[in-house]
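Archive record:
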Amino acid sequence: MITAVHTLVYADDPDAARAFFRDVLAWPHVDAHEGWLIFRTGPSELGVHPGPPSHEISLMCDDLDQTMAELAARGAEFAGPVETRAFGRTVALKVPGAGGILLYQPRHPVAFDL
């Protein structure tokens, strides 16, 4: 049976991206070998949207303003302003060497705690 979801982030600078997840997001991790970190990401959920085949990673939080302040204090940078969308309040979180990840406070019912 399936026991977890393993998410991959591809980065031009994997060391910088790993440092971001380790130091800025402060995610627990294991060192698989020689600095190859694998992070515990916590609860997850999956949605299927219409459109051309692709995949996207989003991080959810309970309070976007508070989360942004905490992450900024640890060195996080954001791309653009906070936006209010149908599914929640969002902001693009910069990941060094790996582009951005959507950070949002959902308005929709969540499934990760079922």
Notes: The chain has two helices and six strands. The mean pLDDT is 95.
